[in-house]
């Protein structure tokens, strides 16, 4: 066999094994240290994200990287937006102590990891015409690429959303419009705990073979 071909096949085989192992190993790990991953490490995640597929190569993702006090500023916005949501959905005044406790908890959330990568989509309608869902699908693939890249370089991640991701006040803080989408708050840091065990439902339960 020609030497180059042999090498190429070997390279592809090892690559494949690596990605399968990484997929199977990855778990959401929320308990991470405050040690700051290097800019280079974060850039590797961002780059991995951009290799995700997107229909018509729209590359709909936009990234915001939050470190240091930017996380506190996000916490303030999250706490205030929670206050607004609670006040709007409640028919009676909320006891001040109760509200403050909830806001305090909300404000602290972004401090759970040294880095948060926010994945957003702007101009959904222009990008994907009749099928805006395809932007979300592509951005979701980008998030997964980033999580797998993180796993391979020893970083832990949690993909978080919640009401915050859909809140217009939060979107505005990022300079996003009401109809823009926040797909993920990807919390990134060095793991402090082992990956939790999770065996997914076997694919046979989820699969119909047609032939
Ligand atoms: C779209 C999306 C939103 C998620 N939002 C949250 C969240 O707000 N909070 C959280 O703790 N985990 C969130 N997760 C992570 C899931 O809870 C997690 O992936 C699931 O429990 C499976 O665990 P694993 O990631 O370890 O395989 C989200 C995952 C996805 C795909």
From TrEMBL:
Listed Gene3D superfamilies: NADH Oxidase
Protein name, as recorded: Putative NAD(P)H nitroreductase
Signal peptide region: none
Residues reported to bind FMN: 26-28, 55, 159-161
Recorded GO MF terms: oxidoreductase activity
EC number: 1.-.-.-
Keywords (A to Z) from UniProt: Flavoprotein, FMN, NAD, NADP, Oxidoreductase
Domain Nitroreductase residues, every copy: 23-190
Cofactor-binding details, from the entry: Binds 1 FMN per subunit.
Homology family: Belongs to the nitroreductase family.
CDD domains membership: YdjA-like
